[in-house]
Design brief:
Elements: H1 2-18, E1 27-33, E2 38-44, H2 54-71, E3 79-84, H3 89-92, H4 94-103, E4 113-117, E5 122-124, E6 129-131, H5 142-160, E7 165-167, H6 188-195, H7 200-203, H8 214-229, E8 234-238, H9 259-270
Parallel strand pairs: 2-3, 4-7, 4-8
Antiparallel strand pairs: 1-2, 5-6
Helix pairs in contact: 1-2, 6-8
The chain binds zinc ion (ZN).
Residues 118-119, 142, 239 line the site of zinc ion (ZN).
């Protein structure tokens, strides 16, 4: 099993490297932990992304999808956990881990359910242009199809579960000034900039960063920040994992140590 998952993780990493990303490790070594059902993936050598933001999420998502697919016919895994030259996330990215810990604190959750459509257009400070977060895959740009699913899920939550439900990204058809893109295409960071101009912590959470992907990182961070502001009782991030055209079904990711989240996620995947 370890040989199979290591081969799959290395193949996924090699495919990712061929897309010429800024920082990539050179090796991915994986093992299956029978006790937890998790696949442990150690990224070694080369160059790791400098922070625990969008770039790392892309890299890990890509490898994770490849590994989980390869394991599925033999022994379906519960998920993946990443290490960095043997270190865990907390040791490798202490600043980002701090934010994680804070957002896991117990809260009074009596607010609405927040439905967050993955990705959306953002300003790339390296290329100096506005672009989607995802490249086309099987003829589809993920940034453009998650809003439709988010709308549908929001309706179902209101009608079937009788809860208040809100979205993060705008659904408007008129153009966003600076990019000229229709609002519904824009990342959540930009709609929050307009709706909450006095709360830049929500949408400009990395004011000192000089990273070319900083607005994209801020977009990702803006979703849980907004949910926390509303005391959301739940937050759904909707994605359509690009994979082979044969892939089907649903996959849910939850944070470790959250049994209630795990129960909800299991129900999502059982349908
Ligand atoms: Zn996605």
């Amino acid at each position: 099993m370890d040989a199979i998952v290591t081969r799959a993780s290395q193949e996924a990493l090699d495919a990712y490297r061929r897309q010429s990303h800024l920082s990539t490790p050179s090796e991915a070594v994986s093992s299956y932990d029978i006790a937890t059902g998790m696949i442990r993936i150690d990224l070694r050598g080369g160059r790791l992304p400098g922070n625990g933001g969008a770039e790392l999420e892309d890299l890990q998502g890509f490898i994770s999808n490849g590994v989980l697919e390869s394991a599925r016919p033999i022994l379906p895994a519960a998920g993946t956990k990443f290490y960095y030259n043997g270190k865990d996330f907390e040791d490798q990215y202490p600043d980002d881990a701090k934010g994680d810990r804070e957002s896991r604190a117990e809260r009074q959750n009596d607010g609405p359910v927040v439905v967050s459509a993955g990705h959306g257009w953002y300003y790339h400070h390296g290329f100096r242009d506005w672009r989607a977060q995802r490249d086309p895959s099987n003829g589809i740009i993920e940034d453009e199809i998650t809003p439709g699913y988010a709308d549908e899920l929001r309706q179902w939550l209101i009608e079937r579960s009788q809860v208040a439900a809100v979205r993060v990204r705008s659904g408007a058809l008129d153009p966003h000034d600076r990019s000229g893109q229709a609002w519904w295409r824009m990342g959540g960071r930009y709609s929050l900039e307009v709706s909450h101009p006095d709360q830049p912590d929500l949408w400009n959470s990395l004011p000192t960063s000089t990273h070319p992907l900083r607005e994209r990182d801020e977009d990702i961070r803006s979703r849980p920040h907004y949910a926390n502001l509303l005391n959301a009782r739940a937050l759904f991030h909707l994605h359509t994992n690009a994979g082979s055209p044969l892939a089907s079904g649903a996959r849910a990711y939850v944070a470790e140590g959250r049994p209630e989240d795990y129960r909800l996620a299991s129900r999502v995947c059982a349908t």
